[in-house]
Design a protein that fits this description.
The complex is a heterodimer of chains A (313) and B (550). With 313 residues, chain A is α+β, with helices and mostly antiparallel strands. Chain A is 37% helix and 20% strand. In chain B, 64% of the residues lie in helices and 0% in strands. Classes of the chains: A alpha+beta (313), B mainly alpha (550).
């Protein structure tokens, strides 16, 4: 049966996996069984009692109380088993242990923002230590989003004006995909994040210096990574097509006309300001919708973006 | 399939003009109060919108052929899937069987001249057309990108024609309510002499149960939709937290209607199947009362489970447990019905005409559709599967699969009665097969997509999901081919002369005792019930003899 489960479900990586997968496979087998059971009955009936002459007479069977009781009670018992099984898993996933590490997650069109206990903030990349209970407190800024990690078998809506909770203990170091599963508009399907399940040492380093990959990467590459991972890509294209914001192609050293009517030279200072105080100058013809990245990007990452834009001629 | 002789029925009434012929002219159709004409106009309208909604579906599937942009951009995609969902739900599936088949067949099955309120019936059709026109007009306002569920605060803050679309759904609700009121009164008041509640064909029970939901639940949707318009237009804060509202409240209101509404979609389908299976098995229905009561039980229980759509929306543990528990109770009457239908076939005399083939498709597809509901009703599994393609597959199995295939079964069943003509039965059998294969090819892979973590309403997706998406898209072409074939041979049947006998299938319900097609007033004089609806005994006991009435 393992191959079947591996076909249907992604490999599990949290403490909630066992409960959910067991029940999932139980109902799957039930579905497969009843499909073939009903199919076989129908097939048999059609073969055996296919009409051969118009004069055929059929028995007049109106009902059979005993049989009907059987096929009412068996489904009833089966669904009650499923109910309790599903309830048990849900309860276990309900209350976070007291020693959970708490991370605040904010969804907004179309990025996920994470705030750690020490105040560190990251965008779209969440680092958590392995084997440590983690509690996510979810909220949203604009519309409802939903935080879904298939490998953890977990999902919870992030609702503006409310806090919802989710907790897990990751069991395997690795990188896991997060999806937004509550429809939220144009960038809904790009509102992806990743959870890095770190060994304790990796996690310490991350808190101090940002993640390893980032530290070793050449600036230009890092710039592209920031563009991809931190939400820039949802609005800024690299090939000149117009998005929610101006494309980055060929803008270096150009003059941009701001909504204030003045011209601005696109240089390092200008880019830096646009990242940290995006409303200071808004390019004419665009809405002032860009969120600030103050506190979200390390200094080296801002430099990297500048280098990256320079290259986009 | 067998090319067996069709039953020769009671004599042709070639001298009497039938309801299609008399009175003549477009105006006579637009002002008719004849339930059969209204039923046909509903049918053509619903089929037209099914074509439109279906073309949108093909566009959606084509876009999903590749992980990134294929034929349209994200904003267009969002508008296309919203329109697809809204058209299919509000303009096709909800009105399809009650509006088309119910209007046509219910009075005939009851032995009545018409529905209780013929003018109200015509009004419901005009309201339907008005709502439909409004829904289409949203395109001129830049379309709607909220999804058919209109979740707040997205729907109260996004641009485009949301208010108009929501008003369209509001207007369409009245058409649904009018039909419901009409059917309830008709069933209570216009049964033929001798037809007690338990001598009524099960189709009528199904329509009755549907009508109860239509009149009780639809007003709630109406009010909710108006609240959205108030928030959008007047800025009254009801759902948007920025205005002091509560976005989750909307979900409660919406599903308080829309969960019962899924039974507005399935009960009529079950009603059709309950007619088709006995006729083509030439055997009395097994467990009449169980089927009748389970329809009513489903209708009533359906009001108590709405929040199973919100298990991950931050409800309390207690509320989650209650709604999950109640949801499981609904699964039981559904299972009972399937077993009853199979038992009806048992030891029957089964002929695999097109309506029966569609009924068998229905049984198999509904089995999967219903059982996959269990994954979603159970709390721990729903957390994983909610808002993924698994849910998409589940509701297409019960809505597109069960409901539309039942519509096809019913159309093929009553086609000779409606038009006095027969379609090409061999092509019909082939098309039923193609539709079954195409349907499963399209939607089975979506279960696996969902359980592997593919979220719904995604324009872009990760490359690992592509293979299954490709299978699904190819399936959509097979399904479309089957449906176009069906349209072709049904239309071609109009080139045949009218000449169907009164009772081509050998059915035992009252509609088969009048000419095909019937005259305007359905029957010559008032028919009196001679035997139960599914009594196939050579010399049936007359109604009223106690042992037969189950
Ligand atoms: C055995 C019976 C059924 C059970 C136990 C069941 C259970 C459920 C549950 C729990 C959900 C919510 C899933 C989620 O959003 O996470 C759901 C969704 C849905 N079901 Fe069913 N269901 C059943 C039959 C039906 C039938 C007969 C229909 C309609 C003909 C139907 C139509 C739908 C629709 C339309 C949705 C999703 C709507 C949306 O989110 O857009 N279901 N079902
Ligand atoms: Cu529901």
């Amino acid at each position: 049966m393992n191959w079947f489960r591996n076909f249907l479900l992604p490999p599990g990586a949290s403490t909630h996996v066992g409960e959910m997968d067991g029940l999932f496979m139980f109902i799957t087998l039930l579905t497969v069984f009843f499909f073939f059971f009903n199919g076989a009955l129908i097939f048999y009936a059609v073969r055996r009692w296919r009409r051969r002459s118009e004069k055929e007479v059929t028995p007049h069977i109106t009902h059979d109380t005993r049989l009907e009781l059987v096929w009412s009670l068996i489904p009833l018992i089966v669904v009650m088993v499923i109910f309790f099984w599903g309830f048990r898993g849900y309860v276990k996933a309900w209350v976070a242990p007291n020693d959970s590490m708490e991370i605040i997650v904010t969804g907004k069109k179309w990025v996920w923002e994470f705030e750690y206990p020490d105040g560190t903030r990251t965008l779209n990349d969440l680092h958590v230590p392995v084997n440590q209970p983690v509690k996510l407190v979810l909220t949203a800024e604009d519309v409802i989003h939903s935080f879904y990690i298939p490998e953890f078998r977990l999902k919870r809506d992030a609702i503006p004006g409310r806090y919802t909770e989710l907790w897990f203990t990751a069991t395997r170091p690795g990188i896991y995909q997060v999806f937004c599963t509550e429809y939220c508009g144009r960038g809904h399907s790009d509102m992806l994040a990743r959870i890095f399940v770190d060994t304790p040492e990796q996690y310490e380093t991350f808190l101090r210096e940002g993640d390893e990959q980032v530290r070793k990467m050449p600036l230009k590459e890092l710039g592209r990574l920031v563009w991809e991972n931190k939400g820039c890509a949802t609005c800024h294209s690299l090939d000149g097509t117009r998005g929610q914001g101006p494309s980055w192609k060929g803008i270096w050293n150009q003059r941009h006309k701001g909504a204030d009517g003045k011209e601005h030279l696109v240089d390092a200072d200008y880019i830096r300001q646009s990242i940290l105080m995006p409303q200071a100058v808004v390019v004419q013809g665009f809405e002032p919708i860009m969120p600030t990245y103050q506190g979200l990007l390390r200094e080296r990452e801002i430099l990297a973006v500048i280098e990256f834009i320079k290259e986009l001629q | 399939m067998s090319e067996g002789v069709l039953h020769a029925g009671a004599g042709h009434a070639a001298h009497h003009a039938d309801y299609l012929e008399e009175p003549k002219g477009l105006w006579s159709w637009l002002t008719t109060v004849d339930h059969k004409r209204i039923g046909l106009m509903y049918m053509w309208s619903v089929l037209f919108f099914f074509l439109v909604g279906g073309l949108f579906a093909l566009l959606i599937r084509l876009e999903l052929l590749t992980p990134k942009q294929t034929i349209m951009d994200a904003e267009t995609y969002n508008r296309v899937f919203t329109l697809h969902g809204a058209i299919m739900t509000f303009l096709v599936i909800i009105p399809a069987i009650p509006g088309a088949l119910g209007n046509f067949a219910l009075p005939l099955l009851l032995g009545a001249k018409d529905v209780a309120f013929p003018r109200l019936n015509l009004a419901s059709l005009y309201i339907y057309w008005t709502g439909a026109a409004m829904a289409v007009a949203t395109l001129a306002l830049g379309g709607v990108d909220t999804g058919w569920t209109f979740y707040t605060p997205y729907s109260t803050t996004t641009g485009g024609g949301v208010s108009l679309m929501v008003l369209a759904a509001f207007v369409l609700g009245f058409s649904s309510i009018f039909t419901g009121v009409n059917f309830i009164a008709t069933v209570h008041k216009l049964r033929a002499p001798g037809m007690g509640w338990f001598e009524m064909p099960l189709f009528c029970w199904g329509m009755y149960a549907t009508a109860i939901i239509q009149i009780l639940a639809t007003p709630v949707l109406g009010i909710t939709l108006l609240l959205i318009v108030m928030e959008r237009v007047l800025g009254v804060g009801i759902f948007d937290p920025q205005l002091g509202g509560d976005p989750v409240l909307f979900q409660h209101f919406f599903w308080f209607y829309s969960h019962p509404a899924v039974y507005i979609m399935i009960l009529p389908a079950m009603a059709v199947i309950s007619e088709v299976i006995p006729t083509f098995s030439k055997k009395t229905i097994f467990g009449y009362k169980a089927i009748a009561f389970s329809s009513v039980a489903i209708a009533l229980l359906g009001f108590l489970v709405w929040a199973h759509h919100m298990f991950v929306a931050g409800m309390s543990l207690f509320a989650g447990a209650i709604f999950s528990f109640l949801t499981f109770f609904i699964a039981v009457p559904s299972a009972i019905k399937v077993f009853n239908w199979i038992a009806t076939m048992w030891r029957g005399s089964i002929s695999l005409e097109a309506p029966m083939l569609h009924a068998i498709s229905f049984l198999l597809i509904f089995t999967i559709g219903g059982l996959t509901g269990l994954f979603l009703a159970a709390l721990s599994t729903d957390v994983h599967l909610h808002d993924t393609y698994f849910v998409v597959a589940h509701f297409h199995f019960v809505m597109a699969g069960a409901n539309l295939i039942a519509l096809l079964a019913g159309m093929h069943y009553w086609w000779p009665k409606m038009f006095g003509r027969m379609y090409n039965r061999r092509l019909a059998a082939i098309a039923a097969g193609i539709i079954f294969v195409g349907f499963n090819l399209t939607f089975l892979p979506q279960f696996v997509l969902g359980s592997r973590g593919m979220p719904r309403r995604y324009f872009n997706y990760l490359p690992q999901f592509q293979d299954l998406h490709v299978i699904s898209t190819v399936g959509s072409w097979v399904l479309a081919a089957g449906l176009f074939l069906t349209a072709a041979y049904l239309l071609a049947s109009f080139r045949q002369p009218k000449g169907m006998p009164a009772n081509p299938w050998g059915g035992r319900t009252l509609e088969w005792e009048t000419t095909s097609p019937p005259t305007t007033h359905n029957f010559e004089g008032q028919p009196v019930l001679q035997h139960g609806p599914y009594d196939y005994r050579p010399e049936p006991a007359p109604v009223g003899v106690k042992e037969m009435a189950h």
